[in-house]
């Protein structure tokens, strides 16, 4: 498990392209028959990916956690962005089609992943945060995730948002998680942008065609930066940073948050006229 420490707005403003990528971009999350994890010191969130192909993968603890098992003091959100697969949580099996979600709470001792068809493997995106209370394991399908239409084709940001783990959906200690799918011909997400200093956020981009990219914008509103991102890459967004993107074609992304405030709508707007 890779560990990344925090960066202040001042030092981030002085980073070159490669330094920005090393600190905030998470690549190669979906590796055959591996679980890849990155521990961020922004609200101690862990970003990960599990791609079972020819074997069943088990989520093990790591020395950095000083825990007997991975979810001893943590909770976990899992969203499948690949072929059909199964997540087993303490002996209970959940079949996940593409864009289905499973939540596993504090105290769960064993989580494992497998694909239904090795030629079309499941791709499980993982997001974990510390938890002070245990909540029951629960599955939510894409259709059950309160889909809501946002944006307009005239501004190239017509999209559908799906909420999975939040105050009115799957209950959690502090983790909030869902995803957004852009309509064909739309490329902008989360614009006008915002910050929320009470919690960090992570984006994971999926369904980005091989020949296309997403320009992900970050940084303080008055000093924005960008990262160029490919399919199945994630970005760590500090609480002081905006988080929005523009693709060269339509795509989807999973968003997840953790921190002090559990309220989904808690954000500080960054109007377009004020961005620099």
Summarize the structure.
This protein is mainly beta and 276 residues long. Helix content is 5%, strand content 43%.
| Rg | 18 Å
Helix-strand pattern, N to C?
EHHEEEEEEEEEEEEEEEEEEEEEEE
Corresponding CATH architecture: Sandwich
What class do helices, strands and sheet pairing give?
A: mainly beta
- Please state the average pLDDT score: 97
- Alpha plus pi helix count: 2
Task: Give a short account of the largest sheet.
Answer: 7 strands, mixed
β-strand amount: 35-45%
Give start-end ranges of low-pLDDT stretches.
none
CATH topology: Jelly Rolls
Shape type: globular
Task: Please provide the count of β strands.
Answer: 24
Question: What does the secondary structure layout of this molecule look like, with pairings?
Answer:
Layout: E1 2-4, H1 9-13, H2 17-24, E2 25-26, E3 34-40, E4 46-51, E5 57-58, E6 74-80, E7 85-89, E8 92-96, E9 101-104, E10 111-115, E11 124-130, E12 138-140, E13 148-150, E14 159-165, E15 176-182, E16 188-189, E17 193-195, E18 199-206, E19 214-220, E20 223-229, E21 234-237, E22 244-247, E23 252-259, E24 268-270
Parallel strand pairs: 1-3
Antiparallel strand pairs: 2-21, 3-4, 4-11, 5-10, 6-9, 6-11, 7-8, 7-10, 9-12, 13-14, 14-15, 15-23, 16-22, 17-24, 18-21, 18-23, 19-20, 19-22
């Amino acid at each position: 498990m890779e560990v990344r420490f925090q960066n202040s707005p001042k030092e981030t403003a002085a980073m070159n392209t490669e330094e920005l990528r090393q600190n905030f971009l998470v690549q190669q999350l979906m590796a055959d028959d591996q679980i890849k994890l990155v521990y961020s010191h922004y609200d101690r969130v862990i970003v990960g990916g599990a791609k079972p192909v020819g074997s069943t993968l088990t989520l093990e603890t790591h020395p950095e956690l000083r825990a007997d098992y991975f979810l001893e003091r943590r909770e976990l959100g899992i969203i499948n962005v690949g072929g059909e697969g199964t997540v087993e949580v303490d002996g209970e099996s959940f079949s996940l089609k593409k864009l289905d979600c499973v939540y596993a709470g504090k105290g769960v001792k064993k989580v494992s992943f497998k694909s239904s068809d090795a030629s079309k493997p499941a791709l499980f995106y993982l997001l974990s945060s510390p938890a002070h209370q245990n909540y029951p394991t629960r599955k939510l399908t894409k259709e059950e995730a309160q889909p809501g239409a946002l944006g307009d084709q005239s501004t190239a940001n017509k999209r559908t948002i799906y909420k999975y783990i939040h105050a009115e959906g799957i209950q959690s200690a502090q983790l909030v998680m869902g995803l957004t799918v852009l309509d064909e011909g739309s490329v902008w997400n989360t614009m006008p942008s915002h910050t929320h200093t009470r919690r960090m956020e992570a984006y994971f981009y999926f369904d980005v065609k091989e020949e296309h990219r997403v320009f992900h914008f970050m940084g303080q509103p008055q000093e924005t930066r960008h990262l160029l991102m490919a399919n199945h890459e994630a970005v760590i967004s500090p609480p002081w940073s905006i988080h929005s993107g523009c693709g060269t074609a339509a795509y989807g992304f999973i968003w997840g948050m953790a921190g002090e405030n559990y309220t989904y709508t808690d954000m500080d707007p960054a109007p377009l006229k004020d961005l620099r």
